[in-house]
Amino acid sequence: MSVLTQEKAIIAFKTLGKKLAHPTDVLGDSIYQVQNSNAWFTLENIEKAILSFSEMLNDADVDQWFETIQFTSSAKKIGLILAGNIPLVGFHDVLCVLATGNIALIKLSSSDDKLIKTIISELIAIEPAFTDKIEYVERLKDFDAVIATGSNNSSRYFDYYFSKVPNIIRKNRNSVAVLDGTESQEDIHNLGADIFDYFGLGCRNVSKLYYPKGYDIAKFYEGIESYQNIINHFKYQNNYDYNKSIYLVNMAKHFDNGFLLLKEDEQLTSPLAVLFYQEYEHLATVENELAAQAENIQCIISKADISLPKFQFGESQHPKLWDYADNVDTVQFLNKLA
């Protein structure tokens, strides 16, 4: 077995990026297994996730990213507890561990236990030296550090169980959009992708909308009209119907366009098929509120004049290699272990 070097890793990542540009060729017959194992993993969403990683692993970005990476000669065993809320959501952590020359002990989510294996098999086929750097485990043991992603409840368990080793523990986060009223219909259409991609199940999906007082909500609904087919997915429709019935029974004020409910609420985390909203008078008030909630926010999507880091409309599910979850630099964390 050949030894993995940084040069080999760089070439392999670039080659994988090019292969992932053709999702159907990569998946082959495994696509049926993936779809049948998780009803949320539709062909459209699987291909979307794969193409997102293809974009991420473009030649220029791979080169730029590796400039920040110290490839270790004394590999550490990094336990990875992956989430499975959307396709391939844990794959970036795998890439970070492999890019630094460490060994990935992968605890897959039962919701995404086939797709990630398929993509990793492609990477090993490109560069067999990765074989010794990857191990699938049912239970983590003999690890030097841990990166674990879960809910707020599971994070308490993770904090306790992994407290004696270096760790990154991720909790629930949500993304928000801030409108200032100057948005075009194209902007709102693009925002629809931030809301509806992967049925809104990801932490990078918008679950809360801020807009100025007097804003015509009809403009928002007109801009997202092309996403109406999402209601044809039975699991999404079940959530829509359930939440709508709750609001009707409780006589709770809400807006409804037939596939997305809008309800005024100060919380960030909205139920599936619901988008919480909040009106504001002064943009500075929103900025201060978001700054105070920074630990609970993954992305801010806006073109408004705010000083906080933000994504353009439609870009929340297209992160760069260096757009780390929870704004915690995973590579820097792994570099320090060396």
Q: Which CATH architecture of the largest domain?
A: 3-Layer(aba) Sandwich
CATH fold name of the largest domain: Aldehyde Dehydrogenase, Chain A, domain 1
Low-confidence segments, ≥5 residues, pLDDT <50?
Answer: none
Tell me the number of strands: 11
Q: Please give the share of residues in helix.
A: 25-40%
Structural class: alpha/beta
Strand residue content: 15-25%
Shape: globular
Termini Cα gap: 24 Å
Biggest pleated-sheet summary: 6 strands, mixed
Rounded mean pLDDT is: 95
Order of helices and strands: HHHHHEHEHEEHEEHEHHEEEHEH
Count the DSSP helices.
13
Radius of gyration: 21 Å
What would CATH call the homologous superfamily of the largest domain?
A: Aldehyde Dehydrogenase, Chain A, domain 1
Strand order of the largest sheet: 8-9-10-7-6-11
Number of self-contained structural domains: 2
What's the level 1 CATH class of the largest domain? Alpha Beta
